[in-house]
Amino acid sequence: MGILRTIIILILVIMPALTLGGDCSNLKSITWILGQWQQDSENSITTETWTKLSPNTFDGISQILSKKDDKITFVETLRIVEMSKEVFYIAKVSHNAFPVSFKLTECSDSMAVFENADHDFPKKLVYKIEDDGRHLNVTVSNEERQFTVEYIKPGKN
Prior knowledge:
The chain is mainly beta. The protein contains 1 helix and 10 strands, in the order H-E-E-E-E-E-E-E-E-E-E. Strands 1-2-3-4-5-6-7-8-9-10 form a 10-stranded antiparallel β-sheet, with no helix packed on it. A hairpin with a 6-residue loop joins strand 5 and strand 6.
């Protein structure tokens, strides 16, 4: 009876912990990131677009369009890849010689956290989709600095 009781207690303690996060070893738990996202501010329009290239790869691009002169002032090519049961977010910007990768460290059906403790800025990217499926907040941070981009999915849902 003592062993059975111990097993039941272990199950009751371990099971809730296992269901708190998603399976971060593949892209299935973050398919909600796919699509076009847009932030329209007074001076610029920022877009981030994600497409499914394969079951193991999402391609992305982020751009900032200046409303003043109707020119793109920033471009970042992005990729999220599943490799060896881990997921990585890879960003390439013109001011870095090489792409920078961030490991998916936490995920759920509404959030993805990518981290790279060795990078200067950012060290952490948190993508969070709201319950309506039309609002996506991306928080970019390190220990000293943080900002959030609030995107909306253009058009009707």
